[in-house]
Specification:
Blueprint (H helix, E strand, L loop, with lengths): L1 H12 L29 E4 H15 L3 E5 L15 H5 L4 E3 L4 H13 L3 E5 L10 H8 L2 H4 L9 E5 L15 H5 L5 E3 L4 H13 L4 E5 L7 E4 L16 E4 L4 E5 L3 H13 L5 E5 L2 E3 L3 H11 L2 E4 L8 H11 L11 E3 L10 H5 L5 H12 L2
């Protein structure tokens, strides 16, 4: 009865529409222990804006943090991730570089060794191939080779994976490439909360982190909780998230394919199949414990990724499950859904058939469940 009365008061206290006493103040109701008057204030935020927030908050929090890369300053970033930051923090904190990935990645690694915390943006991770010696041989191995006396707190970030209509040299996933290398941490966000929380955690980490974003997700809005809007919100590196609970099959993905898995799960739910969807979030170190616990519950496993099949992220997950205790709970072989084993075609119809689609995931689940 008390809840109903409060609800009635709240409805009466709402301001009238514009032009009909719109200035009437909202009645403030007393707080009662154990009674929620409204849900937390979640808002819609694009992945682009979430990354921008994270950079802004970390530049403000720690004067050692700086951003460098091609067009990140005066142009506000090729994808507008760094929009407004140059005007706010100036030339010493947000730095435009020449088109020389090997050069500016090396400068960033040296700065990290000297005690700064650079965020090194690659306009796309395809271009990181020009700087892979700096990432693998300088950033990833220095702490180990110095017996822990020299840390390299650096973030390499930018768009990764399939784009749209840019063909083979600009549309490939590097998760398996960088996930292969000890000394690196590798994160791959899906939602806006992932993007903000993982970028802030990566900047604060004392190890080199590769952050693989999706160009196709930058403009996509996701709900961001009240907690995620906090300046101290971080997502621990190395911890996966169960995006949907299920009992019949485990779907594991990272980056954009997480959304495809959720769509496939919604389709399959109408046919009585309940999928548990795991957002991996981190490629290295991999949270295999969350995957194992899910497989023990569902007895089936399907991995989904945009990268190539051979030596891929899904192959690693399947191997770890086979080698661990969860293998005994599998009722069918694990199945991988991956990109096609070809360089990315330019033609749209071929491109679409080279990237995992929702129908491919549905087909793989039905094959696994023998339905």
């Amino acid at each position: 009865m008390a809840a109903a009365a409060l609800r009635h008061l709240a409805l009466r206290a709402r301001p009238a529409p514009h032009g009909r006493g719109a200035g009437t103040p909202l009645l403030r109701l007393p707080q009662r222990r154990g009674l929620r008057l409204s849900a937390p204030a979640a808002i819609q935020v694009t992945v682009r804006d979430a990354l921008n927030q994270a950079l802004d908050e970390e530049l403000e929090r720690d004067e050692r943090v700086f951003l460098l890369g091609e067009e990140v300053a005066q142009y506000d970033g090729a994808y507008k991730i760094s929009r407004g930051l140059w005007k706010k923090y100036g030339d010493k904190r947000v730095i435009d570089t020449p088109i020389s990935e090997m050069g500016f990645a090396g400068i960033a690694v040296g700065a990290a060794m000297a005690g700064l915390r650079p965020v090194c943006e690659f306009m796309t991770f395809n271009f990181s191939m020009q700087a892979i010696d700096q990432v693998i041989n300088s950033a990833a191995k220095t702490c180990y080779m110095s017996s822990g006396s020299i840390s390299v707190p650096i973030v390499f970030r930018g768009p990764n994976g399939a784009a749209a209509g840019v063909a083979a040299q600009h549309s490939q996933c590097f998760a398996a490439w960088y996930g292969h290398c000890p000394g690196l941490k590798v994160v791959s966000p899906w939602s806006s909360e992932d993007a903000k929380g993982l970028l802030k955690a990566s900047i604060r980490d004392d190890n080199p982190v590769v952050m693989l974003e999706s160009e196709l997700l930058y403009s996509v809005p996701f709900e961001m909780s009240e907690q995620a809007q906090s300046k101290e919100f971080i997502i621990p590196i190395g911890k996966a998230k169960i995006e949907r609970q299920g009992t019949h099959v485990t779907l594991v993905a990272h980056s954009r394919p997480v959304g495809h898995c959720l769509e496939a799960a919604a389709v399959l739910s109408k046919e009585g199949v309940e999928c548990e969807v795991i957002n991996l979030r981190t490629i290295r170190p991999m949270d295999i414990e969350t995957v194992e616990a899910s497989v023990v519950k569902t007895n089936h496993l399907v991995t989904v990724e945009g990268g190539w099949p051979q030596f891929g992220v899904g192959a690693e997950i399947c191997a770890r499950i086979m080698e661990g205790p969860a293998f005994n709970y599998l009722d069918a072989p694990a199945v991988r859904v991956t990109g096609a084993d070809v360089p990315m075609p330019y033609a749209k119809i071929l491109e679409d058939n080279s990237i995992p689609q929702v129908k491919d995931i549905v087909f793989a689940v039905k094959k696994t469940l023998n339905i």
